[in-house]
Write a structure and sequence with these properties.
two-stranded antiparallel ribbon; binds iron/sulfur cluster
């Protein structure tokens, strides 16, 4: 029988990766304008590995939410329509931490994130994933797996 994915351990590892990233000496300053959360505006949607999706789904559930609904304007489902703030900020995926908009200093260089991405990909494999999936779908699927 296939072993059950160990989400608790992998969650700790994903959070450790986020924490390592935060400690890297790159000067960036997110001003919270949330343009990067308006996917149609910026023309791209973040892709999440399974470990990231699990952490984001836990944060969304902790906020009392049971569904991931994409707004009509195509923005991130976790962007608060009125405040313009991320509602899962502590659990936001790696892409949201590294793909900075120009106002925040521009995206992180591949060399600055490569090792951390490789670790996230290894966790994805461990959890039975097959590569990163677009944010709304990834978190929706993670919530289903948590049921
Ligand atoms: S998860 Fe949060 S930071 Fe990332 S795109 Fe959505 S609202 Fe923005």
């Amino acid at each position: 029988m296939k072993p059950k994915p160990d989400f608790a351990t992998t969650e700790r590892e994903v959070r450790a990766i986020y924490s390592e990233w935060a400690q890297r000496p790159l000067v960036r300053n997110c001003t919270g304008i949330a343009d990067c959360c308006r996917f149609r505006l910026v023309g791209h949607t973040p892709y999440l590995t399974r470990g990231e999706a699990h952490v984001a789904a836990k944060a969304w559930r902790a906020a009392g939410r049971k569904e991931v609904v994409t707004p009509a304007d195509g923005s991130c489902p976790f962007l608060h329509a009125k405040t313009g703030k991320c509602q899962i900020y502590e659990g936001r995926p790696f892409g949201c931490r590294t793909h900075f908009c120009d106002a925040a200093g521009g995206p992180a260089a591949r060399n600055d994130v490569r090792d951390l991405i490789q670790r996230l990909e290894a966790i994805d494999l461990m959890l039975g994933g097959n590569g990163a999936v677009n944010l709304p779908t990834a978190v929706r699927e993670a919530m289903t797996r948590m049921k």
